[in-house]
């Protein structure tokens, strides 16, 4: 079984729960274990929130008001990718643990905790960030679309 979808979303706070609900609905319909769905939905929310906050163009005359979310459920794995057109990450961007009482800076660390494999980098060429992450799927016993 293989499912994929891609969204082109405005950089607005309201886009974050939209992407999250679509992911949860897809995984629920396919029969993915709710705990795995929850972990991935939190990681997706963090990646989308980063794109909304930091993913715009840097030039004053160039406004990029969108970002892209793509999700692949393929076999036993789910891969999610969030890309934007912002300035991207500084070279050698370290993902340092944020202080537990910090209000900002915890998102990328949280994604690393919730996913099995994480790639954080920049798009080649014209700038922008890419955050992609994978998680091995577990299925409910009554899963209608379980991988074979």
Number of helices: 3
Give the number of DSSP strands. Answer: 5
Structural class: alpha+beta
Strand order of the largest sheet: 1-2-3-5-4
Oligomerization state: single chain
Description:
- The chain is an alpha+beta fold and 148 residues long.
- Helices cover 30% and strands 26% of the residues.
- It has a 5-stranded antiparallel sheet with strand order 1-2-3-5-4, with helices on one face.
- The longest helix has 21 residues.
- The termini are close together.
- The mean pLDDT is 85.
Topology:
Elements (H helix, E strand, L loop, with lengths): L1 E9 L4 H16 L3 H21 L11 E9 L2 E7 L23 H8 L2 E6 L6 E8 L12
Antiparallel strand pairs: 1-2, 2-3, 3-5, 4-5
Helix pairs in contact: 1-2, 2-3
Please tag this protein with its features.
148 residues, alpha+beta, five-stranded antiparallel sheet, 3 helices, 30% helix, 26% strand
Task: Describe, in short, the structure shown.
The protein is α+β, with helices and mostly antiparallel strands and 148 residues long. Helices cover 30% and strands 26% of the residues.
